[in-house]
């Protein structure tokens, strides 16, 4: 699924300076919790700062990380996988 939002007038260069840019969140779904843990470790080792894992009520574990432009990426996997 793809969801698009219209900007609210902020200059694109202001995005990276915000604490978060929640108008757009890209979800990347892994097949298993093991894959999720491996991706999180790789991001950490490369100098990225992924957030903590959280188990969501909709049946998945996820963490957030920001890309260099300030967009949030949610990396997730189904609970029990």
Quick rundown:
This protein has 81 residues and is of the alpha+beta class. It has one helix spanning 33-45; strands spanning 21-29, 54-55, 60-66, 71-78.
Tell me the major beta sheet.
Answer: 4 strands, mixed
SSE order: EHEEE
Hey, roughly how much beta strand do the residues contain?
Answer: 25-35%
Overall form: globular
Measured between the Cα atoms of the first and last residue, the distance is 22 Å
Overall strand count: 4
Radius of gyration using CA atoms only: 14 Å
Low-confidence stretches: none
How helix-rich are the residues, as a percent range? 10-25%
Order of neighbouring strands in the sheet with most strands? 1-4-3-2
Instruction: Give the overall pLDDT as a whole number.
Output: 82
- Structural classification: alpha+beta
- How many H/I helices? 1
Write structural notes for this entry.
This protein is of the alpha+beta class. The chain has one helix at 33-45; strands spanning 21-29, 54-55, 60-66, 71-78. A 4-stranded mixed β-sheet has the order 1-4-3-2. Strand 3 (60-66) and strand 4 form a beta hairpin. It is globular, with a radius of gyration of 14 Å.
């Amino acid at each position: 699924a793809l969801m698009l939002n219209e900007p609210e007038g902020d200059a694109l260069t202001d995005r990276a300076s915000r604490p978060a840019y929640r108008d757009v969140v890209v979800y990347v779904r892994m097949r298993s919790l093991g894959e999720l843990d491996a991706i999180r470790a790789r991001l950490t080792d490369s100098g990225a700062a992924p957030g903590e894992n959280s188990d969501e009520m909709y049946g998945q574990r996820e963490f957030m990380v920001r890309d260099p432009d300030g967009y949030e990426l949610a990396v997730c996997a189904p609970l029990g996988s």
